[in-house]
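Following up on my earlier thread - several people asked me to post the actual chain instead of describing it. Fair enough. Here it is, all 89 residues.
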Amino acid sequence: MSVSIRLKRFGTKKRPYYRVAVMDSREAGKGRPLEEIGYYHPIEAEGNQVKIDAERAAYWLSQGAIPSNTVKGLFAKQGIKAAESSAKE
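Reply from S.P.:
Thanks for posting it. Predicted structure:
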């Protein structure tokens, strides 16, 4: 199974919020996630924008899940090391 960690968009026009979701990359963009491990609210105050369960993120990265570029940036803000886990060349 090819697993990715990406954002799912919710909210209304000009008021977005996102959930960090672990998904089968072969499913549709709005398909059912395997697990939701956090959220990202870009219009909130700086301290309340991002919350990610680091333990679950580390688990999925160890299982071979590949984070999107945006999620890599969110992981870096939270101190979750995603670079070495997803580097498959």
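The chain has a mean pLDDT of 85. That should answer part of your original question.
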